[in-house]
Amino acid sequence: MHKKYKMLFPTLILIFLCGRMALFSILFHFQLSCLHYITFIATAICAIAFFTIRPYYKYVLSATLIAGLLNLIPFTTDNNHLTFTSGSFYITIQGSALLVCIVTAIVAMPKPKEVVIANKEQLSVNKEKKRTEDLERFKSKFGSKSAEELSEIINGQGYTAAAVDAAKQLLEEQKD
Q1: Quick one: pLDDT at residue 53?
Q2: Domain residue spans in the chain?
Q3: Torsion angle of C-alpha atoms 77, 80, 86, 90, degrees rounded to 10
Q4: pLDDT band at 7, cuts 50/70/90?
Q5: Residue 172, H or E segment
Q6: What angle (nearest 5°) sits at the alpha carbon of residue 142, between those of residues 136 and 143?
Q7: What is the Cα–Cα distance from 168 to 162, expressed in whole angstroms?
Q8: Which of 10, 75, 103, 153 has the least CB density, counted as fewest CB within 10 Å?
Q9: What contacts 7, CB < 8 A, 6 or more positions away?
């Protein structure tokens, strides 16, 4: 699936579940409640958000999935719920919403290879940026030094590579 549209997949699953609900209501004379219509609207808003306000799509999708997980809106006509209990505390989760959450997590996770490559690229950019900053700082610090003093820095001990490179560049500029 193309990277640009891979995050649309969870919404497509929700659209499929809504279509399934509508089909069941027609075929089996199932009476849709107000919550089912709210589910249709929430799913439509997810699809519209993907194409119109992409930066906010993840929040719209998250809100829709959380509402489904907590049984505030139903994604199916049947009663497929998972109930977790601990003493007097219990929570009921909608199975289809949990499935869509798992698919969303899988789709949204970057591949490990992509993460490593991105981290290496960022690290090299950061190193280059720091080196350039250090070079400029040493060039401004050593700008008033004579050729002899710059040669001492180049040949001396205890200077960083950036300091030595800055001294070399300044010495070259003074020769020109």
Answers
A1: 92
A2: 3-109, 113-175
A3: 0
A4: confident
A5: helix 161-175
A6: 85
A7: 10
A8: 103
A9: 50, 57, 58, 61, 104, 107, 108
**Pairing label, strands 81-86, 89-94:** antiparallel
Angle at 1 (CA atoms; ends 11, 66), nearest 5 degrees: 25
Question: Which tokens go with 69?
Answer: 């997980």
Strand-pairing partners, residue 81, are: 94
Tens of pLDDT, residue by residue over 91-148, are 788 888 888 888 888 877 666 666 566 667 777 777 788 888 888 888 888 888 887 8
Structure tokens at 41: 């609207």
User: Each residue of 28-50: pLDDT tens digit?
Assistant: 888 888 988 999 999 999 999 99
